């Protein structure tokens, strides 16, 4: 793989489309990443330009791939999003060993503490060697999964990186209810405390209950009379007219 193609392969699909648009590649939005890498490399050689100069014109940031890593992000109960970066040293090592296919391995690790996976749950998905992201179908929801990135070399496997363990959400709402609600009624009298002694008779009414009712009436009358004395303008005129008519 030439340095130009290797540099282009590290770019995202959106960045490649921007460069292809600048170089005049026809139908670039419908092409795969591998096709864009090849056509951009050919047109760049004909144009005689440098990839770094084109990226500087487009303000495209270069991707640093000093370390190989893979990230597993569940999207919904049926699909998960995976993206990765492969260092130049790992790519060169894979080429030396004759790697011919980049793959993602999805393993069910629910309840496993020693880093192992459940038997017969490993799924190996071949992906585009020039791609840096992929959508994986999830076999079962509400389970813990881990993704391994690596190369298939004939009948052997070359591991590159493992993702963190992530749980795929359940398809239906959880049946577990943590909140406990106590029914109550505003009409019913409050229940006595558990350790409170039972009342033998009803408590007598306070002695000043009747006097309080009279006090409330006097306060109301004084407030309304004072309000009537402060009428002004047309209110006072209408009240005087009403009193004269009544007499």
Fold and architecture overview:
This protein is of the alpha+beta class and 247 residues long. Among the domains are: 3-58, no CATH class; 69-167, Sandwich (Immunoglobulin-like). It is built from 7 helices and 8 strands. The strands form 2 sheets. Strands 3, 4, 6, 7 and 8 form a 5-stranded antiparallel sheet that branches. Helix 1 crosses helix 3 and helix 2 packs parallel to helix 3. The protein is elongated and about 115 Å long. Residues 57-63 have low confidence and may be disordered.
Uncertain segments: 57-63
CATH architecture grouping of the domain at 69-167: Sandwich
CATH fold topology of the domain at 69-167: Immunoglobulin-like
CATH top level of the domain at 69-167 is Mainly Beta
Overall average residue pLDDT:
76
Query: How many helical elements?
Result: 7
Please provide the count of β strands. Answer: 8
Structural class: alpha+beta
Q: How far from one another are the termini? A: 115 Å
Beta-strand level of the residues, as a percent range?
15-25%
The coarse silhouette is elongated
Written as H for each helix and E for each strand, in order along the chain, the element string is HHHHEEHEEEEEEHH
Kindly provide the radius of gyration, computed on alpha-carbon positions and rounded to a whole number of angstroms.
Answer: 40 Å
Biggest sheet: strands, sense, closure?
5 strands, antiparallel
Give the fraction of residues assigned to helices. Answer: 25-40%
CATH superfamily of the domain at 69-167: Immunoglobulins
């Amino acid at each position: 793989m030439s340095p130009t193609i290797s540099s282009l392969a590290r770019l995202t699909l959106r960045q490649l489309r921007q460069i292809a648009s600048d170089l005049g590649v026809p139908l670039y939005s419908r092409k795969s990443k591998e096709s864009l890498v090849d056509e951009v490399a050919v047109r760049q050689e004909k144009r005689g330009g440098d990839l770094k100069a084109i990226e500087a014109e487009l303000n495209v940031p270069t991707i640093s791939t000093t370390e190989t890593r893979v990230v597993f992000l569940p999207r919904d109960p049926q699909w998960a999003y995976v993206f990765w970066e492969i260092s130049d040293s790992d790519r060169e090592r894979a080429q030396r060993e004759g790697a011919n296919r980049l793959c993602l391995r999805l393993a069910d690790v629910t309840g496993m503490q020693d880093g192992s996976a459940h038997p017969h749950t490993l799924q190996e998905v071949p992906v585009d060697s020039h791609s840096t992201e992929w959508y994986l179908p999830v076999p079962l929801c509400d389970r813990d999964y881990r993704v391994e990135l690596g190369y298939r070399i004939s009948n052997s496997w070359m591991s590159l990186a493992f993702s963190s363990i992530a749980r795929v959400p359940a398809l239906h709402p959880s049946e577990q209810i943590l909140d406990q609600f106590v029914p109550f009624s505003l009409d019913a009298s409050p229940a006595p405390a558990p350790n409170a002694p039972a009342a033998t008779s009803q408590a007598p009414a306070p002695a000043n209950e009747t006097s309080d009712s009279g006090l409330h009436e006097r306060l109301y009358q004084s407030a309304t009379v004072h309000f009537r004395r402060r009428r002004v303008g047309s209110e006072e005129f209408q009240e005087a007219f009403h009193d004269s008519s009544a007499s």
